[in-house]
Structure formats: C-alpha cells, structure tokens
C-alpha cells in the first residue's frame, strides 16, 4: 500500500492513550497493568471472548463505514444514529409481520427494508444539503432525535405489546433470527454481512465513478462543480448509502441480538461510527480495524469490571483519550503540511496572498 | 556609506535555498528596483527586511549600523514600512482611521478624532498625497486605497518604503500616478524599494535595479546604462524571445465559435453584468480590465456554474445557455480558470486523477467501474506530451510547481480538441519558461481554428497575443480595439471607464 506511516502513527496514538489512561488508573489507586491484562484476556482470552469482541464490533463496522463514506465526500453526516433506529424498526416490522415467509427470503426482506428505510432517512438531510444548501450537521443531529422519539412512539403506541416491562416491539419470526456463529455467544451472521460491506465500500470508493466523484467532491467541491461533476446527485447518493449502512447496522442488531425493536437500544452506536471513521482514517479497512479495537475495549471492559475493582468508565476515558489524541494528531499533521507548503517558494506568493487577503 | 546595506543574507526553508549570499546597497533617496521571476527570492528577502522572517546568516545595516529586526514592529520602529500587494485595510473604517489604526492619538481611552484628522491632513499635504481623510475606504478606487497604504506607513514615520508588486492591481493611468507619488516621496526624503517583474516600470521609475535569480543576486544595473532585454536576460539566464504571431486568417474563413448575447448575471449581492461579444475561430480575443469588473462573473456564466444568468451563449451556433457544465464541456468548451489551485485542480489528488476529471465517466465500464490502469497509462502519455515534470502520474498535484500544475490543467483541457478555450490569467505566477509554453499553446490552438478568449489583467500579455482586445469595465464591454489600433493609453482609459467614442468599433 501507499505508506505505513499513518498506521504507525495510529498505533502510537493508541499506545499513548493507553499510557495516559494507565496513569489515570494508577492515580486513582488501581493497578493499571493488571487492569490491562484482565482487559486483554477478557477481549481475546478464549474463543467466546473473541466472539463477543466481534459481536460488539459488528454494528460499529456498519456505522463506521456509513460515517466514512460521507466524510470522504466532505459531508459531515452525524445522522447515522437516526438511520440506524428507523432501519432497525423497519427490519423488525417486516420480521414480525411477514411471519409466513421462509427464512432466507424473510431475512433478505428484513435487511432490505432496514437498508431502504435507513437510506431514505439519510436522503432527507441529503436533499436539504444538495438542493437547498442547508448545513447537514444541524439537520442530521436534529433528525436523530426525530428518529429516536418516533420509533419510541411506534413501540409505545401503534405497535405496543401489552405485558412488556420496556417499550419494545413484538418478537420477529423465529426463522428471521440470524444464525449464531459460535457456541454460547450472540455473535451472528450480521458480522459476515459487515465484512462484506467493508469490501463493497472499499471497492466502491476505489474502483468506481462514484468513488472518484466522492473523492473529488470531498477534496475540492468547487473544482468538482467547475468540471461539471454531478455534485448534487453524488451528495444524494452518498447520503443514501450512508443511511443504508446505518439501517443495516440497526437491522443486524434487531435480527441478530435483540430479535425485536427495543426503544433506545442503540445508545450511540451511530455516533461511535464517527470515532471508528476517525480512528480508521476514513478508510474501510481502517474502519474495520478501528471497530475491532473499540469492540475489544468495550467487550473487555465489561468483563474487567466484574473481576477487578476498576469501573468500565475508566475504559470510556481511555476511548475518549484515543479520540482526543487522534484528533490532535490529525490537526497537527494538517498544520505541519501547511507550514511546509508555505515555506516552499512556489507556495510563497500564494501563501502570502492567502495570509494577507 | 549606504542608507541600507544587506550583507551575505542567506535563508533556507526545508529543501529550498530561498536566499543565498545576497548583498545589496540602497542609497538614501533612490528608488531601487528589485526584479526577478516568481520564486527568485524577492518576497523572502523583503520578509527578512520587514522582520516577518529571520535570516539564517548575514546582516542588515541601516545607516551603517547593524540592526536586528525580529518582527514588523521592530521594522517600523527603524523606519521601514511595507506596502503589501494585498492591501491590509479595514473597508468599513475611514481613511484616517485606517491610517492610524493601532497608533491612534487618544484622549484617555477615547479616540481623538480632531487630532487624527489634522495629522492625516498634514501628512497628505507634506507628501502631496491627496486623499479625503473622512472617506470610507470601501468607497475608494484601488489606486487611492494604495495611497492609504502608503500614508499608513508614512504616519508611522517610515522612511524606507518597500512596495511589493504595487502595480499589479492598477490601470496604466493609476500606475503613472503611483510613479508620481513615489517620485515626490523620494524628493521629500524617503527611499523606496520597488518590487516588480515588469521591466518597463523599472526603466521608467528606478535609478538602479537589482536582479535576483534562484535566490542569488545576478547583477545590479543603472537603468540609464541598460535595456529591458538586458534585464530580462539577467532574470532568466538566457535570451528571451517574444512569441511570434502570424496574421489572423482572412475574414471570409472566420466563423463565430463563441457568441455571447446580452449576457446578464444578477447573482445575490454581486454586480450585474451585461456582456456582448463574439470570438471567431482562429483568433484570440483578449479581455482587458481591472480585476473585479465582471471577469469572474463572465467566466462562471460561460462554464455554467453561475446562478441568475439571462441572455444567451452560443457555442458553434448552438445555444448552451441552459445546458449543464458537463454538456458544455462535451460540446467543446475548455477552460483554464484563474485560480488553478481551487477551480482548476484538486490538490489532494494525483496527477492522473486530475487529468481524468473531464472524461472519467466516459471511460467507465459496466457498474461504473473505472479502468484505472488504462487511465493512468493515458495520464502518463499526457505527462510526456505536455512536458509535465513529475516522477510519474501518481504524484500529488499539490507538490507540483506552478508551471507544472498549470500544464496539468492545460493537458486536461486541450486533449479533447476543444472548439473554444476560455483562458483566465493563464500565465499568472508562472516563470518565464512556463509562461512561454502556455502562450505557445494558445497560439497553436489559434492556428488550429479554435476560438480563444483570453481574459487577463496583464496588458503586455494581451497586447502580445490578442487579435482583438475588448475592455471590460463595471460589468460591460466598454471598448474594442483591433490589435493594430490598440495602444496602452487607450486601453488604460477604457479600463478606468473613460470611453471615447472614436475608440468604439
């Protein structure tokens, strides 16, 4: 590949975050080395632990891909969470409505419904941005609340199931429940779909006209427009795909883990996609690795909490530190590039003009 | 003893030797020219003198005393003032407020407007720089804004003025008036360093000129003892030949390739423009005008990225007015935009990706799959054909020099054999070699029957290349001249909006 430098920098960044996290643990009177040991063991120590790490990573892979494809096009889509909710509900609805269908068609239909509804949900801010130039950050954040509260309304109102302690839909048909991959773990077939999605997104971005347009618009939208690229169409398409991947994340959780739609079940899986995309440096393969890393931390920390006196909140601090260092490192790299560019004679005049204008 | 003396100045940036052992004397009361191509080290040298950068070696002496200039404040304290090419004025403040900004006379915490006005008035009388201290800067023409910049420096008691390409934004008449101002300032006890790459300005204004090439001083000349071609030879290092132009084809063979009829752009807050023009095959129609008089609006309307356009644009007789950008390009419209870094290229992408930006979608196979290998091979071919200097086609465009980056734009636009080429400031910021290449390409297209619309603020370039010159002022074509009848003075008057009926064809 191009260069190992970004990977090395990411690993160093993670190590730095773990180091600072360890110092915080030590300062609060815990044995950091022991904690990390338990964490590592809980995440990878046995086949079941590994399976649970992959399980935790599965929705993050989807939401990471959903976020990065938008980022690549220069669209700051914070609305993956919303797509995830509406997609999850759509998948659940198909799953508990068309109970007469055999397994494969029903599962296919559930995922298609989740993907389609998630994608359409992404089209709303996409349309507002592409046609009316409405800032997507605001609209996607707002639409998240709409999606969360609307699906909550659906399962407490029209699709209310009496006798349930929490707001949740009816269970999906048994044949719609995804097959498990490992004994005594909820790891299920949606993980495989996530891996396929990584390949498909990577292929889309690298090999197709859409990928080329995404790259051009993401790196210089003005240039794309002056070259006559279909900028609005590309934004719509990207937002649809981004929403679609968010919908798949939701559908996967419904069909593989909860077997029903549970109000508020995600707790930020869509937002975690931003972390995954950032940490994975907007590359599909990077996002996969980042999702696995985050999955390991999350999965490991819940077990660690049981065996040590260390609350999992401390691992959330480590995750926050990772984000912090990655963000610092990215902006630092950007700064450094600028300084070098400004120092070369070719950029001299241009840089001066920029600086003084 | 010289007024200003630079001894052995050296400055390196990572990978670049910007100034190498530069020594320079400026005598009190002279206007000293500093010439050189882009990247020759002029700007770096002046940044060192103004304290914006520190030299790695060498010393600066003022009146024989060695001085350390750590920042622009130090420079101002020493009486060194810089007039930047891009003015540093606050448009919403008055002339007097701008002049005193940061050094205002005060009554306790309040601005002493009375004293401020008196000081500014006294200053402009002392140096003969007439300007209304109460006028808003935003209401002033560019020439007067520059005067405010100069006054700003005089207000801070600058006695050595550095002017960085001050004529770039002015009409020929404004340039003359600037020269007058500078001569008065020098007579009044100031000294000036005048940076330019226009040779006739050096000849007209400066007593002596120092020529830089690749970071080194290649010579200091007395303007009375030299010729413009001698200075050009020093700048470039070899003889410079002017482009050779053959006569345009006879009228009978000419057909209109681009016609613009009553084009009006009324977009948002931007100036409405109303433009009529025709570009014939086999000719270069030059558009002269001070920047900001509708050039950008015209280009945006032609390429199809402007909102609120009315009127009609015909390409080879067919209307393209309501046709999207992509279709316009497919029908044979090519564009070299003014700002290649933002409008013409995507810096973050590789050369081959930039070269494919116009036709990638036509290369796509089933499912929109791009034949990457084939596209890269094609790009490699263009690298050769257009002499783009890069290790290979995968190099990022952002790392190329201005000349090579412009060649990428030109290669992409010309490989499709356009019927009309719109070129906006195509040689700006290029060294003489690359500029010559660009001009050759324009002339080659002209010879091949392409209609070329050349929009430029550089009168010399327009006069050298155009078959006809039209002048854009305030959003309108106010005058048109055939090349034989075009003079610098007439065009200059039209650029300032002063039309004479006999100029209009």
Walkthrough of the structure:
The complex is a heterodimer of chains A (357) and B (505). Chain A is mainly alpha-helical and 357 residues long. Chain A has a single domain, classed as Orthogonal Bundle (ABC transporter involved in vitamin B12 uptake, BtuC), CATH 1.10.3470. Chain A contains 14 helices and no strands. In chain A, helix 5 runs antiparallel to helix 6 and helix 8 (209-219) crosses helix 10 (231-258). The two termini of chain A are 39 Å apart. Chain B is of the alpha/beta class. Chain B has 18 helices and 22 strands. Chain B starts with a strand and ends in a 10-residue tail after the last helix. The model of chain B is unreliable at 501-505 (pLDDT under 50). The A-B interface holds A 207-212, 215-216, 219-220, 222-230, 340-341, 343-346, 348-350, 352-353, 356-357 and B 13-16, 18, 38-39, 41, 43-44, 84-86, 88, 303-305, 324-329, 335, 337, 341-349, 353, 356-358, 360-361, 364, 367-370, 372, 398, 401-402, 429.
Q: Roughly what fraction of the amino acids of chain B lie in strands?
A: 15-25%
Number of domains of chain A: 1
The span between the termini of chain A is 39 Å
**What integer is the average pLDDT of chain A?**
89
Features of the shown structure:
heterodimer, A: 357 residues, mainly alpha, ABC transporter involved in vitamin B12 uptake, BtuC, 14 helices, 76% helix, disordered C terminus, B: 505 residues, alpha/beta, six-stranded mixed sheet, 18 helices, 22 strands, globular
């Amino acid at each position: 590949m191009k260069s190992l430098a970004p990977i090395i920098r990411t690993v160093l960044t993670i190590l730095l975050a773990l180091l600072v996290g360890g110092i915080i643990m030590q300062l609060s009177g815990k044995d950091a080395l022991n904690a990390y040991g338990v964490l590592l063991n809980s995440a990878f120590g046995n086949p079941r632990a590994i399976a649970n790490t992959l399980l935790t990573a599965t929705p993050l892979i989807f939401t990471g891909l959903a976020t990065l494809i938008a980022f690549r096009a220069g669209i700051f889509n914070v609305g993956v969470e919303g797509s995830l909710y509406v997609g999850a509900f759509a998948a659940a609805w198909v799953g508990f409505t068309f109970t007469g269908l055999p397994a494969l068609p029903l599962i296919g239909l559930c995922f298609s419904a989740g993907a389609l509804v998630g994608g359409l949900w992404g089209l709303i801010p996409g349309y507002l941005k592409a046609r009316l130039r409405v800032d997507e950050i605001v609209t996607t954040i707002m639409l998240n609340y709409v999606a969360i509260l609307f699906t909550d309304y659906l399962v407490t109102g029209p699709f209310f199931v009496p006798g349930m302690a929490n707001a949740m839909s009816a269970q999906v048909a048994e044949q719609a429940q995804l097959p498990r991959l490992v004994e005594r773990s909820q790891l299920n077939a949606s993980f495989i779909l996530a891996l396929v999605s990584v390949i498909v997104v990577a292929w889309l971005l690298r090999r197709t006209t859409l990928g080329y347009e995404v790259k051009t618009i993401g790196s210089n939208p003005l240039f794309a427009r002056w070259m006559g690229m279909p900028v609005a169409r590309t934004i719509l398409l990207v937002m649809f795909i981004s929403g679609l991947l968010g919908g798949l994340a939701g559908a996967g959780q419904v069909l593989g883990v909860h077997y029903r739609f549970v109000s508020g079940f995600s707790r930020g899986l869509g937002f975690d996609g931003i972390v995954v995309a950032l940490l994975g440096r907007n590359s599909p393969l990077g996002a996969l690795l980042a999702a696995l890393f985050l999955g390991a931390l999350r999965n490991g920390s819940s077990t660690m909490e049981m065996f040590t006196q260390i609350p999992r909140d401390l691992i959330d601090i480590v995750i926050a530190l990772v984000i912090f260092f990655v963000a610092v490192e990215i902006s630092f790299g950007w700064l450094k590039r600028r300084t070098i560019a400004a120092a070369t004679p070719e950029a001299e005049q241009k840089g001066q003009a920029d600086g003084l204008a | 003893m010289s007024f200003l003396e630079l001894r052995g100045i050296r400055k390196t940036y990572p990978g670049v030797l910007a100034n190498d052992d530069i020594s320079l004397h400026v005598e009190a009361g002279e206007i000293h020219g500093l010439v050189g191509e882009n990247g020759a080290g002029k700007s770096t040298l002046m940044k060192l003198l103004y304290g914006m950068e520190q030299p790695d070696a060498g010393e600066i002496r003022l009146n024989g005393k060695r001085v350390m200039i750590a920042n622009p404040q130090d420079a101002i304290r020493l009486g060194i003032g810089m007039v930047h090419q891009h003015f540093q004025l606050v448009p919403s403040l008055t002339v007097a407020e701008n002049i005193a900004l940061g050094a205002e006379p005060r009554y306790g915490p309040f601005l002493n407007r009375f004293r401020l006005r008196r000081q500014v008035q006294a200053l402009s009388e002392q140096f003969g720089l007439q300007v209304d201290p109460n006028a808003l800067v935003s209401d002033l023409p560019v020439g007067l804004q520059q005067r405010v910049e100069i006054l700003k420096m005089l207000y801070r008691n600058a006695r050595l003025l550095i002017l960085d390409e001050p004529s770039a934004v002015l009409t020929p008449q404004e340039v003359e008036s600037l020269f007058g101002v500078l001569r008065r300032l020098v007579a009044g006890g100031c000294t000036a360093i005048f940076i330019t790459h226009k040779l006739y300005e050096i000849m007209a204004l400066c007593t002596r000129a120092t020529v830089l090439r690749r970071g080194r001083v290649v010579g200091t000349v007395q303007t009375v003892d030299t010729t413009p071609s001698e200075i050009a030879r020093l700048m470039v290092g070899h003889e410079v030949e002017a482009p050779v132009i053959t006569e345009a084809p006879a009228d009978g063979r000419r057909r209109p390739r681009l016609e613009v009829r009553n084009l009006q752009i009324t977009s948002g807050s931007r100036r409405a423009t109303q433009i009529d023009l025709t570009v014939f095959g086999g000719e270069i129609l030059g558009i002269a005008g001070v920047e900001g008089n509708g050039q950008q609006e015209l280009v945006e309307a032609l390429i199809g990225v402007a909102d609120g356009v009315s009127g009609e644009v015909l390409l080879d007789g067919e209307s393209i007015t309501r046709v999207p950008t992509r279709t316009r390009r497919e029908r044979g419209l090519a564009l070299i935009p003014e700002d290649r870094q933002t409008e013409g290229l995507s810096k973050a992408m590789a050369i081959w990706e930039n070269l494919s930006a116009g036709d990638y979608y036509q290369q796509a196979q089933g499912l929109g799959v791009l034949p990457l290998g084939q596209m890269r091979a094609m790009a490699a071919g263009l690298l050769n054909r257009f002499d783009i200097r890069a290790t290979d086609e995968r190099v990022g465009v952002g790392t190329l020099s201005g000349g090579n980056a412009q060649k990428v734009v030109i290669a992409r636009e010309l490989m499709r054999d356009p019927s009309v080429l719109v070129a906006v400031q195509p040689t700006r910021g290029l060294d003489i070699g690359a500029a010559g290449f660009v001009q050759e390409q324009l002339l080659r297209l002209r010879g091949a029957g392409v209609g070329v619309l050349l929009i430029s603020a550089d009168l010399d370039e327009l006069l050298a290349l155009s078959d006809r010159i039209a002048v854009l002022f305030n959003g309108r074509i106010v005058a048109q001249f055939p090349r034989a009848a075009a003079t610098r003075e007439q065009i200059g008057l039209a650029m300032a909006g002063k039309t004479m009926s006999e100029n209009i064809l």
